[in-house]
Amino acid sequence: MEIPTRKPLRLWPGVVIAVVQLLLRFALPVVVPDAMVFGLFGGPICALAVLLWWLLLSRAPWLERVGAVGLMVVGLSMTSRLIDKSLATGAQGFLFWFLSIPILGIAFVAWAVATSRLPDGIRRATMVATILGACGVWALVRTGGFTAASFKNDLHWRWLETPEERLLAKPTNELGALPPAPAAAPTSEKPPAAQPANQRATLPPAQPELKTPKKQLMAKSGNEPPALPPPAVATETGADWPGFRGPHRNGIVTGVRIKTDWNTSPPVAVWRRPIGPGWSSFAIHGNVFYTQEQRGPDEVVACYKLATGKPVWAHRDAARFWESNGGPGPRATPTLSNGRVYTFGATGILNVLNAGDGAVVWSRNAASDAAVKTPGWGFASSPLIVGDLVVVAAAGKLAAYDLATGTPRWFGPDGGDSYSSPELVTIDGVRQIVLMSAVGAIGVAPSDGKPLWKHSWPTDTRIMQPAVTPDGDLLITSGDAMGGLGMRRIALVHGPAGWTSEERWTSTGLKPSFNDSVIHKGHAYGFDGSILACIDLKDGKRAWKGGRYGNGQFVLLADEDLLLVVSEEGSLVLVRATPDQFTELARVPGIEGKTWGHPAMAGDILLVRNGEEMAAFRLSPEDS
After folding, report:
1. Which of 125, 185, 245, 457 is most buried per CB count within 10 Å?
2. H helix or E strand, kind and range, residue 398
3. SS3 content of the chain, % helix, strand, coil (to 5)
């Protein structure tokens, strides 16, 4: 009797699916950068299509069909229990599945093609090895996060040291182990339960500590420091770059003109220095600057010399925040005012330090005070100084403290999650603090935090800052975990019956995710996804779109109509801030790695950083 031969596998459907998956993931975003979402979700969908091909169309023996699918389920399930925390919690817990399922599908198709003419025994043995290998390899790696624009994962073997661990292991680490220091006394009779102990660094012999620390500024029960004269407005700080996004918290630089021909006069790296992880930007005054970073179990506020990058002093709190994509460390930027530096940590610690030597003036835990939980990406609000108050956003709830004593003065309404910072603006002649949160935007009175108005525009989360147009309207943005959704212009009017808000237009011409925008000469400049764009303030219509800089940040050199962009990959770029067309003037390498922080400027010095490195560049001034 003749034994029937097995029909050859029908391979072409699986090959087509695998090719489509690769095109969606890698080719389509090159042509249409905003289409990355199709590649992201296309992978699991194509993997499901691979399973349907294998079960229904492949002609494989039913034992192989069912056995392969069952082995995939078991392999993925078992691996999910062994993976590193960075994979298990990344992308709201979906990162492992977004990475492993598409790779498993492609590996399985490759196995089917490569072994189609081999004996059944070899085919089945290699099938088992392929499935278990494609699943199990993820138990051996960790991720340092992924770029927001391209979903490029920073994958490493999980047993290798992280950049932070390598930094801490260096024998020349000036901000290394610190001797214990007395904790700052609380400013209330009953301190918050999460109040951490505060420590101040002593420097190595090569960098001696500043003399005569001002211990009299330490907040003590019954011996509070004298109140400082309140500044007339929040921007009167005497600092070159007092904090988040510059003197007016709007990312606009005036009084600076630079050479734009970077072929002959490129930015010159003055110094480079490794730094602990975190997404803080800089505050600059004179010959020093301040930032925040993570060093092992401690959250650090550090002061460095502007000319050399060498440390001057460091303050530590026993606190550590971590999430998979952003990694560990603080998210907010220090604020300088009247000889003090105000910082807000990722777990809610609000510190007020003497800017000269880091001595603690007072410290609070705003998360405990405001009774809010740490949001998923950590507290990210940069402190705002308003008169005799310092105001932070504890997620979507504003919290105001007395500058001199740290006594809580008022708390605003709870707006849900927010990673935005409070903004001091004047609208219709009334000074007010604006905060964007999950519910929309709200304006409150600085004196007592009472709401003046609310504009509802619900979303999952908000990160960006509002901006005031020259004629007094407000630009706000909306986004979610997947990216930006659009920009809206609202008119706020103060009448006899109170405040009203009216939507003038909503535009999808600018859809920033967490990249702040600027207003310049009747137009708004910002990011539409990962591409720079310009829209008209009159109607929100896009004037141009161009340049792929990922989820970068920029400052506006207003005197020269220039955007100085730091791309998500760390490049330095010059782009014309004019509405006629997109024009990139120059691009040079800056720093390496995922770069999300805002750049800062002091004269012709540009400071940039990411979670591993910071650097200072000197920009050639334009000839007089």
Report:
1. 245
2. strand 397-402
3. 20, 35, 45
In this structure, is the dihedral angle defined by the CA atoms of residues 91, 96, 99 and 101, taken in order, positive or negative? negative
Burial class for 421, CB neighbours closer than 10 Å (0-12, 13-18, 19+)? buried
From residue 523, alpha-carbon distances to 44, 250, 529, 535 in Å are 40, 14, 18, 6
CA distance 549 to 567: 5
CB-CB neighbours of 467 under 10 Å: 26
279 exposed, middle or buried (CB, 10 Å; 0-12, 13-18, 19+)? buried
- pLDDT, tens digit (0-9, with 9 covering 90-100), for 460-480: 788 999 999 999 999 999 876
Write the pLDDT tens digit of every residue in 415-439.
999 999 999 999 999 999 999 999 9
Burial of residue 221 (number of CB atoms within 10 Å: 0-12, 13-18, 19+): exposed
Cβ atoms < 10 Å from Cβ of 490 = 21
* pTM for the model: 0.87
Tell how far CA 71 is from the center of its chain.
Answer: 39
CA gap 293, 407 in Å, rounded: 26
C-alpha–C-alpha distance, residues 377 and 395, integer Å: 10
SS3 409: strand
Task: Copy the structure tokens of residue 148.
Answer: 């927001």
Q: Would you list the DSSP string of 514-567?
A: S---EEETTEEEEEETTEEEEEETTT--EEEEEEE--S-EEEEEGGGTEEEEE-
> What is the number of helices (H) and of strands (E) in the chain?
9, 38
Looking at the chain, the whole-number percentage of residues with pLDDT higher than 70 is 87
| Euclidean distance between CA atoms 395 and 366, whole angstroms | 10
**140: helix, strand or coil:** helix
Please name which of 73, 212, 96, 208 lies closest in space to residue 143, comparing C-alpha atoms: 96
- SS3 readout for 482-501: CEEEEEEEEEEEEECCEEEE
CA distance 487 to 232: 32
With bands split at pLDDT 50, 70 and 90, how would you rate the model's confidence at 252?
Answer: very high
Q: Is the dihedral of CA 242, 245, 250, 251 positive or negative?
A: positive
* CA 98 – CA 80 distance, rounded (Å): 12
60-94 burial string, b = 16+ CB within 10 Å, else e?
beeebbebbeebbeebbeebbeebbebbebbbeee
| pLDDT tens digits for range 269-285 | 999 999 999 999 999 99
Range with the lowest mean pLDDT among 82-96, 179-193, 566-580?
179-193
DSSP 173-223: -TT------PPPPPSSSS--TTPPPEEE----TTSPPPSS--GGGS-BTTB
Question: What is the maximum alpha-carbon separation in the chain?
Answer: 105
b/e string for 287-307 if b means 16 or more Cβ within 10 A?
A: ebbbbbbbbbebbbbbbbebe
